[in-house]
Design goal:
Elements: H1 12-19, E1 32-33, H2 45-53, H3 68-81, E2 95-98, H4 101-112, E3 125-130, H5 135-142, E4 146-151, H6 167-170, E5 173-179, H7 191-204, E6 207-211, H8 228-234, E7 243-248, H9 249-252, E8 261-265, H10 267-280, H11 286-297, H12 300-320, E9 334-335, H13 343-354, E10 356-357, E11 359-360, E12 378-381, H14 386-403
Parallel strand pairs: 1-10, 3-4, 3-5, 5-6, 6-7
Antiparallel strand pairs: 2-8, 7-8, 9-12, 11-12
């Protein structure tokens, strides 16, 4: 077996199952799971109808680069959404469909990291936020790179402070993962922060991998989060050099099971990544491609989705703010409250007494020598129905009051 597999850590939900061993949640209270970011809103009916109506195409091998109409729909959406008028995304050069961003965020590291020509500096480095989406760490390890974490805390506005990175690490850095809006904090990078990161990429010659799968869940319709390619285009970065942005229908359109997304950006990188993907084999089935076109071309269901999340945040925060240190994030569908006891004790006690499942923050983070930045936080995914989220908030409040 690949010896690097031994360095992979258990996934957060494996650790959560272990944490709950020996608990007996009350049978008279229905379980409410706010632990996993799996949207529960209804999928767009047009997508369901399309899948049912195009099953005859399952007999054809799909193209790795995707159907022309799918790439055109993805490019058109990106150009509209991020106002890429002066440097539009070209569907034939700057877009590749992927089987959800999870798959692509992992495999891009395998395609980019070069361990054959790492020089005398040592093992290649991939910089990641901390807390983080664990795919980043696993991708780095299996690509033969060293993950190097930047803590995102209240003191940094829950954003990556790249001034923390020493020159010796920049010298080995081949790739940087950013997540905006952030998982789990919901923090959004602004234009200046993206622009400064582009400067660093040019200075130190690394690739920016921007995970933007939560970009369509925000609170003010007039101010959507900016994206990496948007800033690159505003700066006239030709061919989006060194910039890759990842988008998905999972959160935007409540279609996590469809496994449909795309990567957009640097044309030369995507040319090489396409070759990698012809061997990798993660192509979208023809019915999924056809249905995805419809989803990317429609915005009404996305606006309705945002409104549903706004209603849940309004209701849940009104209940929790009097007893927890919690606030509305910049975007996304997570809350990231501080806990009055350790996060693991809070999560286990809440499940055992109120049948509500939340994820301890330390399971999403690594100790970097100054403590674990996720400790004493829990992640609440407001993905259940409004009624369930309100009921969960009431139970969380009751449990918290029992502690304090």
């Amino acid at each position: 077996m690949n010896s690097r597999l031994a360095h992979l850590q258990p996934y957060p939900f494996q650790r959560l199952a272990q944490l709950f061993e020996g608990t007996t949640p009350p049978a008279d209270k229905s379980p409410i799971r706010l632990s996993i970011g799996e949207p529960k809103h209804a999928a767009p009916q047009m997508v369901i109808d399309s899948l049912k109506g195009s099953l005859e195409n399952i007999s054809h091998y799909p193209l790795t680069r995707g159907q022309d109409d799918l790439r055109e729909a993805m490019a058109a959406w990106a150009n509209r959404r991020f106002q890429l008028d002066n440097q539009p995304v070209d569907p034939n050069r700057h877009i590749l469909p992927v089987a959800g961003t999870r798959e692509a965020l992992f495999s891009i590291a395998q395609a980019i990291i070069d361990t054959d020509n790492q020089g005398s500096n040592g093992k290649p480095v991939i910089i990641c936020p901390n807390p983080f989406y664990q795919i980043y760490e696993g991708a780095a390890i299996l690509a033969g790179a060293e993950p190097w974490f930047i803590n995102t805390t209240a003191e940094t506005g829950y954003k990556m402070d790249f001034s923390q990175v020493p020159g010796s690490i920049w010298a080995r850095t081949q790739m940087v993962y950013v997540c905006s809006p952030g998982n789990p904090t919901g923090a959004v990078m602004n234009r200046g922060e993206f622009s400064a990161l582009i400067d660093l990429a040019e200075q130190h010659d690394f690739i920016i991998v921007s995970d933007e799968c939560y970009s369509e869940i925000y609170f003010d319709e007039a101010t959507p989060p900016v994206g990496l390619l948007q800033v690159a285009a505003e700066r006239n970065i030709k061919d989006f050099r060194r910039c890759l942005a990842f988008h998905s229908l999972s959160k935007r359109s409540n279609l996590p099971g469809l496994r449909s997304g795309f990567v957009a950006g640097d044309g030369e990188l995507l040319k090489a990544y396409l070759q990698y993907r012809t061997y990798h084999g993660s192509t979208l089935s023809p019915p999924v491609q056809t249905a995805s076109c419809l989803a990317w071309n429609d915005e009404q269901h996305v606006r309705d989705n945002r409104q549903a999340y706004r209603a849940k945040f309004d209701a849940v925060l009104e209940i929790l703010e009097p007893v927890l240190d919690v606030s509305r994030p910049d975007a996304g569908f997570y809350l990231w409250p501080r806990t009055p006891v350790s996060d693991t004790e809070f999560a286990r006690g809440l499940w055992n007494s109120e049948h509500v499942m939340v994820l301890p923050g330390q399971f999403l983070s690594r100790d970097t020598g100054t403590g674990n930045p996720g400790a004493n936080h829990v992640r609440l995914a407001l993905v259940a129905t409004l009624e369930e989220c309100i009921e969960a908030a009431k139970r969380i409040r009751r449990f918290t009051e029992s502690l304090i």
